[in-house]
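Protein Entry — a single chain follows
Fields — amino acid sequence, structure tokens
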Amino acid sequence: MDGSDPEVPAIVNKRPFLTTNPAPAGFITKYILCLTPLILILLSLIAIAIMYAIMDFVSQPLSGAMRMFLPDMSDVTAITILLIAPIGIFAFFAATGWILRFTEMWVGVVLSLGMSTVTGFVMVAWLPGLALSLVGFLQSGPWIFIPFTSGNHVLYLLSWISFFIQPYSVLSVLGILAWTEEFRRSIRYGISYEGVTIQGGVWMKQEHMIPHHQIGRVVMEQNLLGKISHTGTIIPVGTTQWGTETSIRGLGLGGQKDNIGVALGFAKARQEGSRRPLDCLYGIPEPEKVLAVFETLITRPAERGEMQVTYLKKIYDKL
């Protein structure tokens, strides 16, 4: 009852009879996530154009006395706009990708924003002469609007970050696409009579084996792109893992000398199988055939158990 076939030699039980790996079509979603920095650049350009149009519309009805304050308010307006787009937009999507565990998404965004921030500090603090010589070129190019005419150092820094985030986004996208493709090529899935073996990794290799007798059920997921490209994901999970819920309740009491607070909390989480490429059979071709093989292998112990019960019953009847 250990999940191995007694009629097959042990060395054959451990040898994979079916090997596969993620297909390029199965990684389409991850390739699209790699393009996030370029999409955010386009979103930032649109956001900047809209915000400046709103500011121009709002400033038109102002009287001559109020326009005296516009030169001072223009720096604040430009700083606010640049903090929202592209810096705020990039920071928001970096946090969102990290929370949702979309590695291809948040790594590229963090690289673009981080490298542009460091380069902006270098241009402002250590290379002011070179920075000033590039102002005329930058203002004449198709870049994000950069108000270099101001003497505000904060605005000056944000302007350089807004400029450098554009070429760095292209470099980040190319790097993340190359890493994702190398990661896909490194993954190998093997199915033997004893279990399924998953191995892969670029910088850190991982390899682990899941015995068939520890698999309670096998789930196949296939979206619309998967149906078109005949790819899908096979998720082997334990019996008590898929679909179970965990509830957490808490009651807290705290306070100081003059005030007391009471808190009541409730949270519910659902446990599901992991969809990471190194935890399941992600984006493999012809998942229906692999699913049929899994179903056959994980039901073998139950079939042998029924045969043993029938055999013992015959012995009992004879006695």
Observations:
- Residues 10-22+211-252+261-318 form one domain.
